Amino acid sequence: IICDDGSTDNSFEVVKDLIKDHGENFTLIKNEKNLGYPKTCRKMNDMVTTDIVAIVDSDDVLCTTATERILREFRTRPCVMAVTRRYNWSGPNGMTRESRSFVEGSELINDQYEHIRSWRKECLPESAFSTDIQYAEDRDLFYRMEEVGPISKIDEPLMYFRHHGNSIMSDKLPLARRDHAKAKLYALTRRGIL
């Protein structure tokens, strides 16, 4: 499922042209107005007809083995969510480096949330993708899923995370820091620690 969240350029037409010969593999939708990332994620999750859901952002690139590796993890482990490490990539001629290996323990302590975000559809909490946390929805999702059941951490980089000056988050860093703190505070409160 590919969603154009109310873009004002010709993104929808470009994607439509790119997938025209593969229509049975894709569902292309367009939000007439921008709903924002959390609401769009919820909408797309509700549309999925498979038991495993994964989100890939527009500035991420999957490694060729990513889907197979993630599905194998869900088939062989009793987890509600699987995450992977990533390559941090600064462009075609730029630097690529691997993110650090996972350490055991709660994300509330480790602050090591990584990509790819994938989960069992039936396990997604109703409260996931809160519009109250616009710029740290991935961290909030991770904390909520940690409260549902075990999360499998695949200690392999299976995607490229692109860093570039036009990134959606490049001018939103203060808001992201605020929402990271808010997500952690909400999780600590839900768990009775605060």
Topology, element by element:
Blueprint: E1 2-5, H1 11-19, E2 28-31, H2 37-47, E3 52-55, E4 60-62, H3 66-76, E5 81-89, E6 96-98, H4 107-110, E7 117-120, H5 137-148, E8 151-162, H6 173-190
Parallel strand pairs: 1-2, 5-8
Antiparallel strand pairs: 3-7, 4-8, 5-6, 5-7
In short:
The chain has 194 residues and is of the alpha/beta class.
Descriptive terms for the model:
single chain, 194 residues, alpha/beta, 6-stranded mixed sheet, 6 helices
What does this molecule look like?
The protein has six helices and eight strands. Strands 3, 4, 5, 6, 7 and 8 form a six-stranded mixed sheet that branches. α5 (137-148) runs parallel beside α6 (173-190). The protein has helices at residues 11-19, 37-47, 66-76, 107-110, 137-148, 173-190, and strands at 2-5, 28-31, 52-55, 60-62, 81-89, 96-98, 117-120, 151-162.
Shape type: globular
According to DSSP, the number of beta strands is 8
* Percent of residues in helices: 25-40%
The Rg value, from CA coordinates, equals 17 Å
**What count of helical segments does DSSP give?**
6
Question: Separation of termini?
Answer: 39 Å
Q: What low-confidence regions span 5 or more consecutive residues with pLDDT below 50? A: none
- In N-to-C order, the SSE pattern is EHEHEEHEEHEHEH
Structure class: alpha/beta
What is the mean predicted local confidence, pLDDT? 85
Which band does the percent of strand residues land in?
A: 15-25%
Largest sheet: 6 strands, mixed
